[in-house]
Amino acid sequence: MTLAFDEPRIQEVVGSLSRKMLINGEWVDSASGRTFDTVNPATEDVLASVAHGEAADVDAAVRAARAAFEDGSPWRKMPHGQRGKIIHKLGDLILEHLDDFALLESLDNGKPYSVAKAADVPLAADLFHYMSGWATKIEGNTVPVSAWDPDQYLAFTLREPVGVCAQIIPWNFPLLMAAWKIGPVLAAGCTTILKPAEQTPLSALLLGELAMQAGLPPGVLNIVTGFGEAGAALAAHRDVDKVAFTGSTEVGREIVKAAAGNLKKVTLELGGKSPNVVYADADIDKAIAGSAHAIFFNQGECCVAGSRLYVEESVYDQVVEGVAEQASQIKVGNGLDPDTNMGPLVSAEQFERVTGYINSGRDEGANIIGGDRVGDRGYFVAPTVLTGTREDMKAVREEIFGPVVAAAPFNAERDILPTANNSNFGLGAGVFTRDVSKAYRTARRLRAGTVWVNTWNVFDASLPFGGYKESGWGREMGHAVFTNYLETKTVITDLS
User: Fold this and answer.
1) Could you point out which of 10, 51, 195, 396 has its C-alpha 20 to 30 Å from the C-alpha of 325?
2) Which Gene3D superfamilies does the record match to this protein (predicted)?
3) Is the same domain home to 65 and 117?
4) Cβ proximity of 475 and 449 under 8 Å
5) Strand partners, 362
């Protein structure tokens, strides 16, 4: 196996990172002095030991963020255009460190270096570039009063930053999820505490270094590395005004409970079990390729993975055989191997979860195509297709978060839509058809925040993203994201 980087280069990039937490513009140890290990999922070797943040560290970070948000602070006094320049500069710096970020994402998460370099890192930079323009475009309105003398009263609205924000991100797209959270919060003029996933803290630490280089004042961005107790302390902290969380629906429910103490605002981007509907009139080759991409991209560790594949009966065998053939051609291996198409799952826990669902499907009577462990070291699972499934199967109902798709046939358009919508989730969905009218009807009736037609996994900083039902509250990206981070104030003046 030939790797894209040799060991000295890996040690250079990982070794140059701070392993501490960023609080008030300084890299600091945890209050307890404790650390934890982050592991390379391809080798099961320890990459680095990182500060283990807990409640005391969260409290220090919140105090720093509050001070940075107060009236008269450099951040609050900064002209909006200057704020936008700093955000844009951070995007530039990410591109300047493209190789380093891609390497860290591959080492810490397992994803192919080539994918991180082509997608994760450029999209993160683009998010900051896009959001930088919004810093000067947050506007209120002048409102004509309707029940009073319009010459006597001047009424207008202001859009003001919500305050101190806690932002808790997952491990599947570590850098990109950090960008999705930090970009709009900075453009809105808020301050923040970012809590990266304990499995993948390294790219967040590099991002913190670059944020300071870009000119972000101390305390505006704080980074606390740690486990669930740090996230819980953030969600419950009474001096946090807003919490944004991306992760599982189960943890999302706990976030809501923790936030109830001071009724802080909450946005949630949670789990999914996305239906992918393939009609018989689709471009079958495109549908096969798109359906495989929908589930096997990023090792299936994607909240919008097309994990429920519904194919019109007359082409069912052809499509399923095509997806299974594509799965068999996927090279599973170390993300630093240039020939790798799919890396390992992120952790031993995730490996056990995914293989447990595959075994559950087998036990409940599904046919398993693939599903084997690959190699004897690292958390590698072969891409998997389940056929002969039923809607009551655990592997069909619950989010697996791995490269496992459950396939089933359907007879007619009127039959499939109730089935496709028969889920507690509603994050993503897709439809493949050549019939524009059918595509529109299906997209309108699918209960999901994003519906792809004849494609999958197309994201853009300008496009709002979020879920229906138990897939969350609120939207990321686009101008819609600012609903999360701005308050509306109404001002009425008597001119008489």
Assistant:
1) 396
2) Aldehyde Dehydrogenase, Chain A, domain 1, Aldehyde Dehydrogenase, Chain A, domain 2
3) yes
4) yes
5) none
Confirm whether 1 is domain-assigned: no
CB burial of residue 63 (10 Å; 0-12, 13-18, 19+): middle
The 10s digit of each residue's pLDDT in 218-259 is 999 999 999 999 999 999 999 999 999 999 999 999 999 999
C-alpha span between 67 and 49 (Å, rounded): 30
What per-residue string of b and e applies to 219-247 under the rule 16 or more CB within 10 Å gives b? bbbbbbbbeeebbbbbbbbeebbbbbbbb
Residue 318 tokens read as 């052809």
| Kind and range of the H or E run holding 488 | strand 486-494
Q: Which of 54, 105, 198, 269 is catalytic?
A: 269
- How many CB atoms neighbour CB 438 within 10 A? 17
Look up 325 and say whether it is catalytic: no
Mean pLDDT of 327-338: 96
Do residues 334 and 256 share a domain?
no
**Separation between Cα atoms, residue 378 and residue 113, nearest integer Å:** 16
114 shares a domain with 191: yes
d(CA 13, CA 164): 32
What is the model's pTM? 0.96
Q: Is the pLDDT of residue 313 over 70?
A: yes
Coil, strand or helix at 192:
strand
Look at residue 5 and tell me whether its pLDDT is greater than 80. Answer: no
Same domain assignment for residues 170 and 211: yes
Nearest to 357 by CA among 338, 319, 384, 334: 384
Q: State percent of the chain over pLDDT 90.
A: 97
d(CA 14, CA 3): 16
